[in-house]
């Protein structure tokens, strides 16, 4: 590879990273809208199969039902978060003395001679109120961005109907049209499989964890179950964080260590069973991505886009692998990012011969 080609690649990568960082406020809503667009279409497919007087519902009706369902879900989630934060603020007078008592108990168990620090000494109350204020600000900011995201989703839904005609109007040669069709089909399959399986397993993990929380009587069990559902989309550290937070509340809420151990062990076992046994069987070999690359992409996208970057790190990386595998110049990148170095697209090509029309592939 010549020095000029290396320089061109470095400049291109630098420009892309600059665009990602500088355009964060514009790109994040678009990528979130893409995820919601996939979810809307997945729900639409399910609603289309519902029996209605012996016939299927019209596509426009099922799309509207999907949008309403997702909108109501987002409203319910934001309302639950606000109510939970309000509950924490109102009951801070109950939790803060319990934290102080737990600190004193730890000092006693470890035979520390000096007196334990109080809540006032640690300034913990001010820190908690400050964190609650940040949560409120985050929810308010997210609520403002929801309207823009939903607008993007509507544009995607409108465009998907005319996309096949645009593809035919491009007039690409057979090779170019076939390659483009293959890439879209593979990305579409990978994204739908990932989002579908991940959503299903996250719901199962959250429901089982909710049962554990209810059995021991943990406060705000529904909120912690939702947090587990959400953080399950974050690779590696998501499960650890989602388990640690309710465990800490159990440590403060109850006088004994038994509820704390039940939460830690119970949720951990659920995460292992669902995440390491059930999920790989459902996911299969759709996501051909190295575990090390998963961790590195999580770090990179969290630095660039924060929480949203964590949630989207795997789908974005999978799409990069699929695109890079189609061109000889970028194929080594796909091989390095893949799980086992196998980025052969012959399987995809066989599938593409059965679906020559791009719109038919995308509609699946």
Helix/strand/pairing class, anyone? mainly alpha
**Overall number of strands:** 0
Sheet having the most strands: none
* Whole-number mean pLDDT: 78
List low-pLDDT spans: 346-364
Q: What's the structural domain tally? A: 2
What's the Cα radius of gyration? 24 Å
Notable traits:
364 residues, mainly alpha, 2 domains, 14 helices
Commentary on this structure:
The protein is built from 14 helices and no strands. The C terminus is likely disordered. Its main location: membrane.
Q: Layout of helices and strands, plus pairs?
A:
Layout: H1 3-22, H2 24-48, H3 59-90, H4 92-109, H5 119-122, H6 124-169, H7 174-216, H8 221-231, H9 237-253, H10 258-283, H11 291-324, H12 331-337, H13 346-354, H14 358-362
Short description:
InterPro entries: AI-2E-like. It is found in: Membrane. Helices cover 82% and strands 0% of the residues.
